[in-house]
Amino acid sequence: MTSWKEQLGDRIPEPLAGEVDLFEGQIELKKQGKLDDKIFAETRLRRGVYGQRYDNGLRDDGTGQKPLDFPCGDLTKGPDTVWDAPGMMRIKIPFGKMTADQLDVLSELAEENSDSILHVTTRQDIQLHFIHIEESPDMMRRLAAVGITTREACGNSVRNVTACEYAGVCTTQAFDVTPYANAITQYLLGHPDVQDFGRKFKIAFSGCEDNPCGLVTFHDLGAVAHVRDGKRGFRVVVGGGLGAVPVQAKVLAEFCPEEELLPLAQAVSRVFARLGEKQSRARARIKFLVQKVGIEEFKRLVAEEREGLRPDERWTAFLDDLHSTDEKPIREPGALPSDAPLGFQKWAKHNLKPQAQEGYYTAIVKLPLGDFTSTQGRALADLAREFTGDAMRCTVEQNLAFRWLSGADAVAFYQRLDALHMAEPGAGTITDMTSCPGTDTCKLGISASRGVTGELRKRLTLVEDQLDPAVQRLRMKASGCFNSCGQHHAADIGFTGVSRQVGGRKVPHFNVVLGGQWTENAKSYGLVVGAVPSKNIPKAVELITQHYLENREGDESFQAFIARVGKKEFRKVLAPIQKPPSYEEDPSYYSDWGDPREYGIGDIGVGECAGEIVPFVEFGLQEAEQQLHDAQDALEAGQAAAAAKGGFTAMVTAAKALVRHLEVQVKDDADDVVSNFRTHLYDTEIFHDPFAKGKFANYLLKMHGDKSFEDANEETAHRALDEAQLFLEAAHACYQRLTQAASAAAAE
Predict the structure, then answer these.
(1) What's this model's pTM, rounded to 2 decimal places?
(2) I need a surface site. Which of 305, 412, 638, 696 has the fewest CB within 10 A?
(3) Neighbouring-strand partners of residue 465
(4) CB 446 within 8 A of CB 599
(5) Which of 71-85, 142-156, 592-606, 610-624 bottoms out in mean pLDDT, i.e. has the lowest?
(6) Across-strand partners of 203?
(7) H or E element: which one contains 383?
């Protein structure tokens, strides 16, 4: 049988062919035990091959059903147990653009090598799950033959460059950012100056300031299109990020001329590679470097680096043909029919957007949980060939955009989608939620983010027509853990997975985050207002939206309403549903959405029953949460220093509770608490999370050491409260591990 390498040899660009051959050789060396585990782990990550989680079985489709029944091993034990079971492949789709031929190949790979599901990520990538690593080189060859690479899709590298899905057809853009996003993608791919990063590096482009499509403010490097005196350029920002502690990007250049974009990106990369953290992964993102040296010093370092760069003709070569990435319609323009059926009209209200080019529209295909099947993928490729040509784009909201759809073809396009069960209306509304993989496939997942968004979507879709327009406009996003892959910080209503212990049993929860601003490229981030049991999240959404509608002034927006009434008000709203019933009263609270098993049953022993003596530590942790809530209220009231100090106090209270739980005598003053915390919990690594490696403990130690809360401003206070929130979550997790250890010891 002819191999894929032989079949596709003349269709694969030589550089890509050599890279895949090298990776295939590295797989063989690893199998023979001749390649170090750590080296191979980073190698496969840089080729887009990940291990994935299996303790929760297969990923949930939002109904509690699993798509297939793979016999799976365990990839959660170490960096390279990838031989035991299938893993995941992340496939870079620069700025989300796909051709029909590419979608065909992706669909074939999903069917032949995966579980027949293609997943669109919030970085406009495509992910395939349950793939075997030994099959990945041939998968890469088939992708390379249609112009796709998985190189640097993961690992400590420049990740997929994202851009507005409407770039080039938008009515509000300064200019089309597509050729610039393409140029920076090609220039930095494999560039020697981006191979020595301590962590990943994310780049985004936006065609305008006001609309959120590019979301540049939470990127390591962001570029917003501007025209000054007739000349094209960009407002460039640096050092943004969500993750555990969200940070707004700082302005690196108010106006970077288009010819300076690539050398500026190269200079930033070199500074990051040279000065960025390498030992502690927790502080290895560029946002920490910018915070450490300050934006003015960072600007100086970049300018100095730029001066020393050797000239490169590729910096400006792409400017000679900025139309090389242009798309051309394949059908004549036309008006929407005046007698369109009602189903189409409902779909078109949110899923069809007029382009700058008269007679053409961009159609958004709404993908529940970002998923579609291989069968649907092939049908969508045929739709593109018939109606729009190679003008598809994955979106950062985990949907698909079909550009250049003639108004005259819109009804036929809709009817074909409807036959595929892909004509769900409400794109960009409250039913169009973003979610990370959560506990379905992610090894860091704490709560079932896909499960809860699937449940919310199902319930809200049933009453969508009855929802107030102000509620319909809200954005909801969920992350399964603090890493914020679901971008919950930038949603009107966001959720992040956490765990709580009740009566000796773990209960899945979500922190409810309110006040994030999705518009203006995610201008501001929300704060946690409280943790709610996972099974009560649908009720939480009902209470939040009901309180908003009943108490808003006129047509007051949700953002304005939160700013006026404060998050303290919403804590009162959520208070009745924050305490789960005992296990005996309702055991359903002790399992997560889409997983009937008892939550964490394999991780902890049987603890004390609910209703018996409550340990002091639980009171202490609850007190710390209240102190943090008060600090958040102080920040809303404009009292930055008081807010930061309150965050520090909350951490001290939680630390004191844990130290006392270890039966260590400790005074009430902060110095003694921190000293004992360091001795008994930090130095012993008892507090260290298996993944965070003491990262959250450092928030307390650093703030105690430098007393940064004393002169905090609004930005640093916000960061202090985010850090305090993470410290408290780590304290809860530490207490659960201590309980587990005590139960195990008692059983011996």
Answers:
(1) 0.87
(2) 638
(3) none
(4) no
(5) 71-85
(6) 221
(7) helix 374-383
Q: How far is Cα of residue 431 from the mean position of the Cα atoms in its chain?
A: 18
Residue in 529, 517, 484, 509 with CA at minimum distance from that of residue 721:
529
- The angle, 0 to 180 degrees and rounded to 10, between the axes of the packed helices 286-293 and 295-307 is 110
Residue 35 tokens, joined: 């390649």
Note the CATH number of domain 177-321: 3.30.413.10
Our CA dihedral for 503, 505, 511, 512, rounded to 10 degrees, sits at -70
Looking at residue 615, what is its pLDDT? 64
CATH classification code of 429-613: 3.30.413.10
What is the residue-averaged pLDDT of the chain? 88
Confidence of residue 284 (pLDDT cuts 50, 70, 90): confident
Closest residue by Cα to residue 426 from 323, 478, 493, 350: 350
Q: Which of 533, 444, 526 is nearest to 480 (CA)?
A: 444
User: What is the number of alpha carbons within 13 Å of residue 491 lying toward its C-beta?
Assistant: 26
User: Order of strands, edge to edge, in the sheet holding 505-514?
Assistant: 434-435, 476-479, 493-502, 505-514, 527-533
Rounded Cα distance between 535 and 612, Å, is: 24
Q: Write the CB contacts of 118 (distance below 8 Å, at least 6 apart in sequence).
A: 106, 107, 110, 126, 127, 128, 371, 372, 373, 374, 377
Residue 85 has a pLDDT of 55
pLDDT at 348 over 90: yes
d(CA 719, CA 714): 9
Q: How far apart are CA 91 and CA 128, in angstroms?
A: 8
Q: Is the pLDDT of residue 602 over 60?
A: no
Q: Which residues pair with 233 in a beta bridge?
A: 226, 257
Domain ranges of the chain: 4-144, 177-321, 342-419, 429-613, 615-748
Alpha carbon distance, N-terminus to C-terminus of the chain: 57
Helix axes 616-636, 567-574, angle to 10 degrees: 140
- Least Cα distance to 178 among 190, 191, 166, 160 occurs for 166
What does the block give as tokens for 442? 């992610």
Structure tokens at 294: 């300050």
Structural Rg of the chain based on CA atoms: 26
Cβ contact 628:650 at 8 Å? yes
From residue 456, give the alpha-carbon distance in Å to each of 200, 436, 630.
32, 15, 30
CA distance 660 to 676: 10
**Tokens (6 digits) for 445:** 């997942």
Report whether 717 contacts 694 (CB < 8 A): no
In which region does residue 503 sit, left (phi positive, over 0), alpha (psi from -120 to 50) or beta (all else)?
left
pLDDT band of 55, cuts 50, 70, 90:
low
Report the range of poorest mean pLDDT among 178-187, 259-268, 291-300, 497-506.
Answer: 497-506
Question: What tokens does 262 get?
Answer: 């690539």
DSSP string, 80-113: T-TTSS-EEEEE--GGGEE-HHHHHHHHHHHHHH
Pairing of strands 203-206, 162-163: parallel
Nearest CA-CA partner of 604 in 439, 733, 445, 452:
733
Q: What fold does the segment set 615-748 form as a domain?
A: Four Helix Bundle (Hemerythrin (Met), subunit A) (1.20.120)
* Fold agreement between 177-321 and 615-748: no
pLDDT in tens, 457-469: 999 999 988 999 9
Question: Among 94, 276, 307, which residue's Cα sits nearest to residue 189?
Answer: 94
Quickly state the pLDDT bin for 692 (edges 50, 70, 90): low
Strand pairing of 250-257 and 231-238?
Answer: antiparallel
Task: Give dist(CA 203, CA 220) in Å, integer.
Answer: 6
Span 342-419 CATH architecture = 2-Layer Sandwich (3.30)
Provide the token pair at 209. Answer: 């300031």
What is the tens place of the pLDDT at every residue in 513-559?
998 877 665 667 888 899 999 999 999 999 999 999 999 999 998 98
